[in-house]
Amino acid sequence: MSSIKISVIVPIYRIEKYLAQCIESLLEQSFKDFELILVDDGSPDNCPQICDDYAKNDNRIKVIHKPNGGLLSARKAGLEAASGTHIAYVDGDDWVDHFYLDTLYKLAIANDADLAVTGHFREFDGKIETVKPKNPGFYDETKIKSEILPKAIYNGEFCEHGMSTYVWNKLFKKELLEKVLYDVPNDVVMGEDAAIVYSYLAFTKRLAISKIPLYYYRQRHDSIVKSVENPKTEYYRLGLLMNFLKTKLSNVLDEENLDTQITFYLYSQILVRSGGLIYNEKNDTWFNPFLKAEKDSKVVVYSSGSFGQHILSTNLKTDYFKIVKWIDVDYHDLKIGKNTVNPISSIYNDEFDYLIIATINPSTHKSLKEELELMGINQSKIVKTNTDEAKINSLLTDIGFDENFIFNQNN
């Protein structure tokens, strides 16, 4: 009988710079009863050779070489080859704590949990932030249905998840994951992890959530700045995810709650990817979600993360705002157009009309607003994001989404 308790699956594509650190952190785990499945998803760099070299020296490693099919297909290929009773996913450009598997497995076994969840670290440009779940504890089936699922995608604060979308800070039961993963269409290429996690949650009867951070998530500059290739293509892809979630969760949530959760999730994703401004082709107008900040306002953008970068990039094309400064508490050597990132101490109230905090996370927004207030920034100049559900629904309809969140590309 196999002693393998956990199969760790690592999808790999064009990450040779980071792969060795990832593999080493897994091979050095305190927990020993696991196998490591490296899925080379047709990577064109040196990743295939790195995988093979490690496999020659450690019999716990299986390597799968496959044509490029995307992240979801790599996750599926790894699951098909897995021998463990439990499944952990690790992204090949990240790394894990020495007790990552040990802690996850004990959480799962001690609570007979179908799903074990932990905290994580976010590493960005050498700085590390600790992220902990806000709802730690044990949940049985009744509590999952009454407390977790109704707030999993959208917890009532725009736009914050009650359950994180990531697969990598979780431990799944293989027998349950097999019921879920293969049903996710491979053409879901935006929000693949959310499709897995939330549909798996619908099957979960026992859940254990721990605050302990064990996973190091690397936020890379080169993975953030991606131009929006075509808004309609992105809307279509987001629609595939949202429609899948509606279909899979319709049996465990009432329709009104489910539609509200998905509506805010979809809106938040469109906001981030569009850089805030959303073009309404039906009315030939721009939907500006930043309340009070009108066209040609002198604006400061706070955050050099994904949303902030997209705001700068979008404004280059639209010239909607006059962006006078780009700031961040963790400022980096970045430049978009004529704007480079500056420290928050570099701004003064008289040089701008409004300040946009580029985050869709309300907790982050609140803490950054407090920091700015301590620096003497006028709080009335910090804009809020439009979260009027009726207006959001109207916008989604105008740009082509139907009641099932399917996007009509011919709209």
What secondary-structure arrangement, pairings included, does this model have?
Layout: E1 6-12, H1 16-27, E2 34-41, H2 47-57, E3 61-66, H3 71-80, E4 86-89, E5 95-96, H4 100-110, E6 115-124, E7 127-131, E8 137-139, H5 141-148, E9 170-173, H6 174-181, H7 192-201, E10 207-218, H8 221-224, H9 231-249, H10 255-274, E11 278-280, E12 285-287, E13 298-302, H11 306-318, E14 322-327, E15 335-336, E16 339-342, E17 354-357, H12 362-374, H13 389-399
Parallel strand pairs: 1-2, 1-4, 2-3, 6-10, 13-14, 13-17, 14-16
Antiparallel strand pairs: 4-9, 5-10, 6-7, 6-9, 8-10, 11-12, 15-16
Helix pairs in contact: 7-9, 9-10, 10-11, 10-13
Structure, explained:
By secondary structure, the protein is of the alpha/beta class. The chain folds into 3 domains: 6-224, Spore Coat Polysaccharide Biosynthesis Protein SpsA, Chain A (Alpha-Beta Complex), CATH 3.90.550.10; 231-284 and 389-399, no CATH class; 290-381, Rossmann fold (3-Layer(aba) Sandwich), CATH 3.40.50. 36% of the residues lie in helices and 21% in strands. The protein is built from 13 helices and 17 strands. The chain has helices at 16-27, 47-57, 71-80, 100-110, 141-148, 174-181, 192-201, 221-224, 231-249, 255-274, 306-318, 362-374, 389-399, and strands at 6-12, 34-41, 61-66, 86-89, 95-96, 115-124, 127-131, 137-139, 170-173, 207-218, 278-280, 285-287, 298-302, 322-327, 335-336, 339-342, 354-357. Strands 1, 2, 3, 4, 5, 6, 7, 8, 9 and 10 form a 10-stranded mixed beta sheet that branches. The model has no long low-confidence stretch (mean pLDDT 93).
